Amino acid sequence: MTPDELCPLCGGTVAEVRGLMHWSEYDGVGGTILGGRCSACDTDLRRRVARGESPAWRALVPPPELLRAAVSAEELPALTARFERVTLFGQWWAEFLAYRQPGDEVWRFTGVDGTEGFAIVRQGRPLTQFLTPDPDFERGLLEREAKQSRSA
Ligand SMILES: [Zn+2]
Q1: Rounded CA separation 10/39 (Å)
Q2: Do 41 and 81 share a structural domain?
Q3: Distance (Å) from CA 54 to ligand 1 centroid
Q4: What digits encode the pLDDT tens for the residues 85-118?
Q5: How many domains does the chain have?
Q6: 79 and 47 together in one domain
Q7: Do residues 72 and 145 both lie within one domain?
Q8: How far is the CA of 38 from the centre of ligand 1 (A)?
Q9: Which partner from 27, 57, 75, 123 sits 20 to 30 angstroms from 107, CA to CA?
Q10: Do 45 and 71 share a structural domain?
């Protein structure tokens, strides 16, 4: 096994490998995005297999220094309600929460470009992440809902 095939964080073997996306290009050559989970440190991993790109696994996590605060258990239902209004995000959020094991926490983080995200954190180490919908899109959705409830 080459280093490219192992977890970039701990060198563990990658389990639960599955195809997430595949695309074709005009000349018939395409690429694939694979997902996996490190069997040793349990980090969520992605790998792009495409021409001209490194096929190494990458950890789908924010750098720990971007973590801001733990989300309380009381706040989670409101976040679930928020993301369930946006197509696909409700499902992604449910999959994100399903990553947790007893004792894991949900933390809020701010990406280097200002995006809002959440991470599952185990003993201070982020294991996977969820990025929130585009803020302009969410604002538009709320405005449409408010308009509809006024006219109803
Ligand atoms: Zn690992």
Answers
A1: 10
A2: no
A3: 18
A4: 998 999 999 999 999 999 999 999 998 888 899 9
A5: 2
A6: no
A7: yes
A8: 5
A9: 57
A10: no
77 and 132 share a domain?
yes
- Six-digit token pair at 137? 């899109």
Q: How far is ligand 1, taken at its centre, from the CA of residue 125, in Å?
A: 11
Q: Are residues 27 and 44 in the same domain?
A: yes
Report CA(110)–ligand 1 centroid distance (Å).
23
Enumerate the β-bridge partners of residue 45: 36, 59
Nearest partner of 107 among 138, 141, 143, 69, judged by Cα: 69
b/e per residue 37-52 (b: at least 16 CB within 10 A): bbeebbbbbebeeeee
- 70 and 134: one domain? yes
User: For residue 83, what are the domain limits?
Assistant: 64-151
Residue type, 75: E
Separation of CA 124 and ligand 1 centre (Å): 15
- 6-57, pLDDT tens digit by residue? 999 999 999 999 999 998 887 777 899 999 999 999 999 999 998 888 889 9
Token code pair at residue 101? 């094991």
The token duo for 130 is 């969820």
Alpha-carbon torsion angle 142, 147, 148, 152, nearest 10: 140
